[in-house]
Amino acid sequence: MTVFGFGGDPFDNSMGDSFFSGLFSMFPIIFMVVFGLIIFMFVKTIFHHSKTSSTLKDLQQFASQLADDPNDDTAERLADYLRGVDSFSIERTRMEPFRVALGCYQLVMESRSVREETKERLDRQYKRLGILDGEKFADEAPPRRRSSSSHHDIHHNHHDHM
Questions:
Q1: What is the mean predicted confidence (pLDDT) over 31-59?
Q2: Burial class of residue 56, CB neighbours in 10 A (0-12, 13-18, 19+)
Q3: N or C end of the chain: smaller count of CB under 10 Å?
Q4: DSSP per residue over 44-73, as a string?
């Protein structure tokens, strides 16, 4: 007699055993999916870090050239470079690429040897990437964790003075 597609005798204990053995056979698959997600996130983090480092090096090169001689050709190359950048993440723990990008922007905008068309083109790229929107974070110190001992000292000193 077949009951709900399991087959066999409904009063036979082997039906429950086959259900649990099927459930336990899913554990390796679940483990592999979780492990795969962890590896994916790790690789993504490494890729993001190397991409940010590469962007920082490129921006430092532009900043150096602009500081030595802020000309239209360098500003054009910076605009072309930024056009090829998909996104520019602003991380409070890693503000150096952002600060260098703002420095390049200021050097170009203050230069008399850079044409107005080039300045407008560069301004559009900075706005597209949201670099100018993050300017308020440029002067902030990176967030720091407070140690529990200093919190304990403050709490302890509070009780001493009462």
A1: 86
A2: middle
A3: C
A4: HHHHHHHHHHHHHHHHHHHHHHHHH---HH
